[in-house]
Amino acid sequence: MGVPSGYTSAQVVQAVPTGINSALVLITPTSTANTGGTVTTSGGRVTVAGSSSVSLNGVFTSTYHNYLILVDTVEVAVGANKLNLRLRASGTDTTTSTYYAGQIYGTYAGATGGEANNGVAQFPLSNLQTTKRQMFKIEVFSPQAATITTIHSLGVAFDAQSNYAGYQDGATQYDGFTLFMSASNFSGNITVYAYQKS
Amino acid sequence: MVKVIEQNLVTGEIVERDQTAEEKAQAAKDKTEATAQAEALEAKAAARQAVLDRLGLTEQEAQLLLGS
Q1: How do residues A92-119 score in pLDDT, each as one tens digit?
Q2: Is residue A6 assigned to a domain?
Q3: Which of A10, A29, A87, B18 is the most exposed place for a label (fewest CB within 10 A)?
Q4: Within 10 A of A143 (CB to CB), how many other CB atoms are there?
Q5: Domain count of chain A?
Q6: pTM: predicted TM-score of the whole model, two decimal places
Q7: How far is C-alpha A130 from the chain's CA centre?
Q8: Chain A neighbors of B4, CB-CB under 8 A
Q9: How close B36 gets to chain A, by Cα (Å)?
Q10: Please, what is the angle between helix B59-66 and helix B21-55, to 10°?
Q11: Residue from A174, A155, A156 nearest A164 by CA
Q12: pLDDT tens digits for A152-164?
């Protein structure tokens, strides 16, 4: 399939049936930065191996409003540590206490609960365990708008499922994000898609 | 020394550098806060268990009563 008008070669439009206008557009970052470990990118899929932090730059643009981030096959080196997200602009993470997120979780053993994050320095995703297959589905709404950026994350960990919903309070127009762990490193694959505007 | 690797996926340029002082300070701060949060959760779990022990309830019985 050729590159349609209005798209760059870095953006691949998925085929949809005639008459269906909605689709996801695969986004390839313009650059990555990782702390420790290795990061490779192929066909828009960013593969992380043993990094405590990985940043994807140039993924949010004014072309689209909303984005889907899939993080699959996640493993961590040190268990019971949390993976977090920070929004970034021009290569700099927002680290101020401007992230708000409520959590609802349920363990497979039946326990339920939640966690409040009322103005913290990162958007939490989930506690993770070692060498277990885990995944995240993260939706980021209007990161390029000069207003709050809302975020919803569904996390599937080894022993529980976890939902975080909230926002980052500010007027920065973000072009990327960082996934990081404070006391471990992680491995997995990151793929970013944009939702078509119409 | 922790290294940061920057890859420009447009030009193919790869730069390996040391963490900046700011990055190091932020990482240390994040680690301190994560440790404090984990300790607080452990303390909360221990306090909950102490209450259950005083009441003579198992975790499963507490879940039946409290729904959590």
Answers
A1: 999 999 999 999 999 998 888 898 999 9
A2: no
A3: B18
A4: 25
A5: 1
A6: 0.87
A7: 20
A8: 33-35
A9: 12
A10: 90
A11: A155
A12: 999 999 889 999 9
A160-182 b/e (C-beta count within 10 Å ≥ 16 → b)? bebbbbbbbebebbbbbbbbbbb
Would you tell me how many other CB atoms lie within 10 Å of the CB of residue A89? 17
| CATH value at residue A183 | 2.60.120
Predicted complex ipTM exceeds 0.95: no
**Does residue A88 belong to the interface with chain B, where contact is any CB pair within 8 Å?**
no
For testing the chain A interface, which of B2, B3, B6, B59 should be mutated: the one with the most A CBs within 10 Å? Answer: B6
pLDDT in tens, A40-76: 999 999 999 999 999 999 999 999 999 999 999 999 9
A35/B4 CB distance under 8 A: yes
pLDDT at A8: 61
pLDDT at residue number A109:
86
Domain containing A99: what range?
Answer: 11-16+24-195
